[in-house]
Specification:
Elements: H1 3-17, H2 32-48, H3 57-74, H4 99-119, H5 124-144, H6 151-163
Helix pairs in contact: 1-3, 1-6, 2-3, 2-4, 3-5, 3-6, 4-5
């Protein structure tokens, strides 16, 4: 098993145990996907408010976890053949961008995912592709502004903490 499928499976398992996404059905409840995308937007905004880019690694890890989980909800097993180095379409050269520009790029990807959901039929292939790029670019940002821990370790630590949280913790609505 490669890294992203393993992380996605773990995120989905933990979120289901905590009561999130257990009745997910975007075909019957049209507001579910936008709610999940809004949660991704909120994590990007939290990264934006960090005093220094390196302080935003946890929020970027949350972006990755939420995107992996949504991908699993939309198409179980989607991440099975994926790696964090995967998607060439839409990749930005972060070496030439400011921190703010990089985060704007993540917001744009999330907004594009919402527009795909709203306007394309079927929407899943385009939305999954945007989630794919969002995971990749968030991972690359974590690598560009490193902390003492590599991205994988940060994400695993977040998942460990999430696994110890209570049922429907934090007031999350989706």
């Amino acid at each position: 098993m490669t890294l992203l499928p393993e992380l996605a499976t773990e995120a989905r398992r933990i979120n289901a145990a905590n009561g999130w996404g257990t009745d997910f059905d975007p075909d019957k409840k049209r507001d579910e996907v936008p709610s999940y995308l809004a949660l991704i937007h909120s994590e990007i905004t939290e990264a934006w408010t960090a005093k220094f880019p390196r302080d935003a690694s946890r929020e970027l890890g949350d972006v990755i976890i939420r995107a992996l989980d949504l991908g699993e909800l939309l198409q179980p097993g989607y991440w099975q053949d994926c790696h964090q180095e995967f998607c060439e379409i839409g990749q930005r050269d972060y070496r030439r961008e400011t921190w703010v520009g990089s985060l704007m790029g993540l917001h744009v990807l999330t907004s594009e995912a919402l527009e795909i959901y709203r306007k394309e039929t079927p929407y899943r292939p385009g939305l999954l592709q945007r989630l794919h790029v969002l995971v990749s670019e968030s991972w690359r940002l974590m690598e560009r502004y490193p902390t003492d821990l590599p991205p994988e370790r940060i994400i695993r630590d977040i998942l460990r903490v999430n696994s110890q949280r209570g049922y429907r913790h934090g007031g999350r609505r989706t």
